[in-house]
Amino acid sequence: MVLRADLLAGPAERVAPLLLGAVLRHDEVAVEVTEVEAYAGPRDPASHAFRGPTPRNEVMFGPPGHLYLYFSYGMHWAANVVCGPDGTAGGCLVRSGRVVDGLEIARERRHGAPERDLARGPGRLTQALGLSREHRGTDLFAGGPVRLEEGEEVPAADVARGPRVGVSQAADVPWRFWVAGSRYVSAYKRSPRAPAAL
DNA sequence: CACTAGATGCTCT
DNA sequence: GAGCATCTAGTGA
């Protein structure tokens, strides 16, 4: 697909599978996206935007194609591509990827982790890319150092889906999408706070 | 390999 | 102060 900001204006759960295969870049380090999760704002109790705008999540209420970053579990940043029309909150969490450029830098930032684990998991991915607070709200299509680039398209037949990792609300909604068979995908873990599986 | 416990600090109530 | 869209190091098989 031709990756453009206006293609991200659809509902998050429809945009998410289209992001697989795209490339998220920060200067020399680039990651091919292998796993994403959709968060549908006001329609989705698991979304940070479910209860309306706050200083943290206001980026998600703006135009699509911007970067929503949040800090999690005391040590990790997680990166989302804002989806949905301007004024409606939504986003896709970039959970995992394969480093396709800047391998040496990524390895340093990840303190010599195995290649497979350089960007497998949302916290590891932002660490490999060197993304944190100063990149909040970046327009990924403005030609800056942090941007979303076209990659090799993943055919719909190769997209697997299932419930999202670690969410206590809407724990059975299958809005996690990944490249079927890829080794660069994180393990599924149900939230211990979620009600028992169906 | 699978599984578990604990660290850690920001955000909102 | 509770709750987290997590990670790592540790154990045991």
From TrEMBL:
Family recorded in the similarity comment: Belongs to the DNA glycosylase MPG family.
Lineage: Bacteria, Bacillati, Actinomycetota, Actinomycetes, Propionibacteriales
The protein, known as: Putative 3-methyladenine DNA glycosylase
Coiled-coil regions listed: none
Keyword Lyase (UniProt): no
Family matches, as SUPFAM superfamilies: FMT C-terminal domain-like
CDD domains: AAG
PANTHER family with a match to the protein in the record: DNA-3-METHYLADENINE GLYCOSYLASE (PTHR10429:SF0)
Superkingdom of the organism of origin: Bacteria
Keyword list, A-Z: DNA damage, DNA repair, Hydrolase
Pfam families documented for this protein: Pur_DNA_glyco
NCBIfam families registered for this protein in UniProt: 3mg (TIGR00567), PRK00802.1-3 (NF002003)
EC assignment: 3.2.2.-
